[in-house]
Design goal:
By secondary structure, this protein is of the alpha/beta class. It has seven helices and eleven strands. The chain has a single domain, classed as Vaccinia Virus protein VP39 (Rossmann fold), CATH 3.40.50.150. The strands form two sheets. The protein has a nine-stranded mixed beta sheet. The chain has a two-stranded antiparallel ribbon with strand order 4-5. It binds S-adenosylmethionine.
């Protein structure tokens, strides 16, 4: 891995990955400008509202951790604007950013993207085939997440899209913006559990659609480093940032063994 930060040492690194145990706002300030070809961000959704859900047949709390709580709407939007602004600075002129979310944060994220100088390219709906049942029975079962894909709003920006490969992967028909698949399989949690771990297939499709081999991919809220595992499989260079030591340790295990 090359040099991407001033005054910040990786907690762990190997030939194609570097992990930073740090607050992402501090780390992004220290990152050198225009270094990332692509950014995938799975930020806090702020859905930890003391409600209930179902996991492995048991009623459990929806709370993910203190990192998933926020004071109110204004604080949430300010949080999203600030990290998206920092990401823009470290993204290359033709680079793109993908951000996942649910109704709890995605409308703020979409507005923050436009306010901070991005243009949304696609609104991907990730439809889960095996969502947990709705325990309260007062609304429809939540079974989707949104992934926004955006580029810099500059007139000269030309984003990369591997149209041909996506069409091939879709049996010769244009790939649509609804992607269907399972929740993260338990095999991907064999090194430990992250409460909001994404499935590797989702990240692999995102990488194949918008990057080429040896590109630099940044994940500013890396959690268990699903992005890093997909980068390893597809020979992309990976930079992961998370402020939770337990999740960084889990990331290391996955990067070494998956
Ligand atoms: C939604 S999870 C990401 C899960 C990840 N995509 C995966 O597959 O494992 C968000 C992560 O952001 C981290 N986080 C929240 N606020 C942060 C901050 N200010 N700086 C760094 N990391 C933060 C949390 O520790 C959590 O692991």
């Amino acid at each position: 891995m090359g040099k991407y930060f001033k005054e910040l040492k990786p907690y762990y690194y190997n030939d194609n990955a570097a992990l930073y145990l740090s607050d992402t706002f501090e780390a992004l300030e220290k990152m050198l400008p225009e270094k990332a070809d692509m950014i995938f961000a799975d930020p806090p959704y702020f859905l930890s509202n003391d409600g209930i859900t179902c996991s492995a047949g048991k009623v459990v709390s929806v709370n993910k951790g203190d990192w998933d709580k926020i004071g109110g709407i204004d604080e949430k939007h300010d949080f999203n604007r600030r990290w998206i602004r920092l990401c823009r600075r470290v993204l290359k002129p033709n680079g793109t950013i993908w951000i996942s979310g649910t109704m709890h944060n995605i409308y703020s994220v979409g507005m923050a993207l436009e306010q901070e100088g991005f243009k949304i390219i696609n609104n991907i709906t990730w439809q889960k085939t095996n969502p947990p049942p709705n325990m309260a029975c007062r609304c429809f079962t939540h079974s989707t997440e949104t992934v926004l894909w955006a580029q810099k709003a500059d007139k000269s920006a030309r984003h990369f899209f591997n149209y041909k490969l996506m069409k091939e992967m879709n049996g010769g028909k244009q790939m649509k913006d609804v992607w269907t698949g399972t929740l993260t399989p338990s095999a991907e949690k064999r090194f430990g559990k992250h409460p909001t771990q994404k499935p590797v297939y989702l990240l692999e499709r995102i990488l194949l659609a918008s990057t080429v081999e040896n590109n630099v991919v940044l994940d500013p809220f890396c959690g268990s480093s699903t992005t890093g595992v997909a980068c390893k499989h597809l020979k992309r260079n990976y930079i992961g940032i998370d402020n939770n030591a337990e999740y960084i340790q889990l990331s290391i295990e996955r990067l070494k063994n998956e």
